[in-house]
Write a structure and sequence with these properties.
Length: 197
C-alpha cells in the first residue's frame, strides 16, 4: 500500500496557534518524511490545551519538528527533538534559531539509540510518529515506558497508517482518537507503573 505523504503548501507547513502562529517551516523532499497535517495538529493540541502549558515534551521522530514546535508555540516549557537524519536535524536547528524558539534542543540520533541512554528527565508529553513503513510503534512505546522516560500521567500522541499495528503498553489508556484520510492518530494517557517492567 502506498503511504500518505501529507503536506500543507508545497514544501512548507504552518504553525497553527500560539506565539508562533502562522510561522512557516520548510518541508524538504525526503523519503518517509510525512509532516503531521495542520488539521491533525489543531485537533491534537485542542485536546492537550488543559495540560500543554509548562509541559516537558519529547518529539522522538522529529522530522520537521512540527509537533514539538507547535507545543513550544502553545506554552510547553521544553522539547527535545530526536532526528537521525543529519540534514533534517540541522534544518530543525536552523528553524528553531530563525523563529527564536526557546526551550528546544535537537539531538541527532536514532530513536532507539537515544532511548537506550538514561532518561535526562521524565516527559509529560511524547510524540510517537515514526516513518510508516518501519513498524516501530510498539517497540518505541515499550522502550519509552520501561526506560523511565514518562511522568506518572504523561500523554503520548501516536500516528500510524490505516492497517498498521500498534500495541500500547498495558497501562496506556486511550484518551482520544481521530482519522485524517489514511492517517490514524490517537492520544494515550499513562495511568500507572507498567506491571511488567
Amino acid at each position: 500500500m502506498t503511504r500518505p505523504r501529507t503536506r500543507s503548501a508545497a514544501g512548507t507547513l504552518r504553525i497553527v496557534a500560539g506565539s508562533l502562529r502562522g510561522s512557516r517551516l520548510s518541508v524538504p523532499d525526503r523519503p518517509g518524511l510525512r509532516p503531521t497535517p495542520d488539521r491533525v495538529r489543531e485537533t491534537l493540541f485542542n485536546w492537550l490545551a488543559p495540560v500543554i502549558e509548562g509541559a516537558r515534551c519529547l518529539d522522538l521522530y522529529a522530522g520537521t519538528g512540527a509537533l514539538g514546535i507547535e507545543a513550544l508555540s502553545r506554552g510547553a516549557a521544553s522539547c527535545i527533538f530526536v532526528e537521525r537524519d543529519r540534514d533534517l536535524a540541522q534544518g530543525l536547528r536552523d528553524n528553531l534559531a530563525r523563529l527564536k524558539v526557546a526551550g528546544g534542543d535537537v539531538v541527532h540520533a536514532d530513536a532507539f539509540g537515544f532511548l537506550a541512554a538514561p532518561a535526562p528527565t521524565r516527559f509529560d508529553l511524547a510524540f510517537l510518529d515514526p516513518p510508516f513503513d518501519a513498524g516501530l510503534w510498539t517497540e518505541a512505546a515499550r522502550r519509552l515506558e520501561q526506560g523511565g522516560w514518562l511522568s506518572d500521567t504523561a500523554f503520548v500522541h501516536v500516528e500510524a497508517g490505516q492497517g498498521d499495528e500498534f500495541v500500547p503498553p498495558p497501562n496506556w489508556r486511550l484518551h482520544r482518537e481521530g482519522r485524517a484520510g489514511m492517517v490514524l492518530y490517537a492520544l494515550y494517557r499513562r495511568s500507572q507503573a507498567d506491571p511488567l517492567s
